[in-house]
Amino acid sequence: MNRAEILIIDDEDQIRKMLEITLKANDYSVTSSPSGTEGLIMASNHPPDLILLDLGLPDKDGITVLQEMRTWHTGPIIILSVRQDEEIIINALDKGANDYLSKPFRTGELLARIRSALRSSVAEDNDPIINSEDLQIDLLTRTVKKQGKLVKLTNTEYSLLALFARNDGKVLTHHFLLRAIWGPGFINQSQYLRVFVAQIRKKIETDPDRPKYLVTESGVGYRFVSI
Predict the structure, then answer these.
(1) What's phi and psi for 115, nearest 5 deg?
(2) pLDDT per position as a tens digit, 45-62
(3) pTM of the model
(4) Can you give the residue ranges of every domain in the chain?
């Protein structure tokens, strides 16, 4: 049984009801709010394990709510929105969202994103070792194994892969990755990222042309998916 508590912040009654029914049917504990102000109060009084946040709220812009949340809330936040512009998605992710799902969305995909975000949150707190089918990443010893054999990575390759692993399931934007690994002066050097991601895929993926661990989010960035 899932014990995770999920807070829904969305002004559409039908969406909230649908989400409540779906999540409760999957054994999640659910609370909801139709406004950003009330959602912030609810989250601060009783921090949930995960927040589903709409961007088009009646009282506050969802990005503003996200930024306020991120001053104190460390749990996963998934954006649900009809807005599909690349710049908006990238901005939300850069401002601290763990994931972004455009409306209308498939229920199965939402549940998978929720499981991934919650799994990542638990792993960050408790376990320095990420085991994923034939891949093992030990963040404590800084070692990576593929089918039990040690994978030789350069320092930069390891740093990039470890950053992905620590954010399992979260979409990381190009700018975020470039700034984190190479520094703020390299945020427009996307070719760096393409080269190193390709090199890492050759070493950890069974089929680098069809990656299952290091997945491209077109126009936005990349997502590490543990399996």
Answers:
(1) -60, -45
(2) 888 999 999 999 999 999
(3) 0.69
(4) 5-123, 127-224
